[in-house]
Design brief:
Length: 291
């Protein structure tokens, strides 16, 4: 009979060793920092050695921790490969993601090559339509919402960085277009207009522009295409128009940038937390969202 501590205790150690942080390990495992601390203390008591020390730059592995971490990681990898070798092929290695359409097209798609190269064993299914008949097949979803909304089960990916842009044809002799001379393009979310123009005008100190005027669209792509055609001025998250800014097909009206209050969050259903494919995607998202 093997004399091993609980596998969950070892999994907690692996997460803390990988992140070098109790907080990040707690977020990854969806438990409290206190629970992480208790598990590590119990493992240290079991082994009779200290595994981590706190320093000015955070957690550092002791010699014992450094000796244990790679072997434990390899052991979990071998267990995972052994299970995959005997698992009947099914949907468990297909990662199903629900995401806003413009975010999926303009932010996620250009970055997916890196994920697929790193994790070729995971097949992705990205959709913008909720399947109410089979909700259990959804592994995670990306939520667009205002800061402070929602629950603590959400993990922030990135806040929007709004800038006002226009087609270069609206710049006359190098002068920025007058905000009162062109339609303001607005985005609707769940039937309500996002207050991106109001926030941007407040940041610039402009009170002479009617933020209620202009044209409303149901998707951000419609706003972008209208702005590209010179049909108006738009306040857009610069992360959604990286190609247009790089090519010069959309030009910032001023350098003013407003961060938030809207952003994108990752939410994982309770029964999907801890799955390897979900954790890999979440860790990858955390890295590419904060380069």
């Amino acid at each position: 009979m093997r004399t091993l501590p609980p596998l969950n205790m070892l999994k907690v150690f692996e997460e803390v060793a990988r992140h070098r942080s109790f907080n990040r390990a707690a977020d990854a495992l969806n438990v409290t920092q206190g629970a992480i601390s208790r598990q590590i203390k119990q493992l240290e008591d079991y082994l009779g050695v200290v595994l981590f020390v706190r320093g000015p730059r955070g957690l550092t592995l002791t010699d014992a921790g450094n000796a244990l971490a790679p072997h434990l990681g390899e052991a979990f990898d071998r267990i995972e490969r052994a299970l995959e070798a005997v698992r009947v092929p099914n949907l468990r290695q297909r990662l199903r993601i629900l995401a806003p359409p413009t975010w999926a097209t303009r932010w996620l798609s250009p970055r997916l090559r890196g994920f697929m190269q790193r994790y070729p064993d995971i097949s992705l299914s990205v959709t913008s339509q909720r399947d109410d008949e089979h909700p259990g097949e959804l592994d995670c979803r990306i939520l667009f919402s205002r800061e402070g909304e929602g629950t603590g089960n959400r993990r922030l990916l990135v806040m929007e960085r709004h800038i006002a842009v226009a087609s270069p044809e609206l710049f006359q002799d190098g002068r920025e277009p007058c905000l009162r001379d062109h339609p303001l393009l607005h985005i609707l979310h769940e039937g309500r207009r996002l207050r991106v123009w109001e926030n941007w005008l407040a940041a610039t100190g402009r009170s002479d522009v009617d933020a209620d005027s202009g044209i409303e669209f149901s998707t951000l792509d419609q706003v972008i295409h209208t702005a590209l055609a010179g049909g108006g001025l738009a306040v857009i998250d610069r992360q959604m128009i990286e190609r247009e800014l790089a090519s010069g097909s959309l030009v910032p009206i001023t350098p003013v940038e407003v961060i938030g209050p809207y952003g994108y969050w990752l939410e994982v259903p309770g029964d999907k937390r801890g799955l390897s494919k979900v954790e890999r995607f979440a860790d990858w998202l955390a890295v590419v969202s904060n380069p």
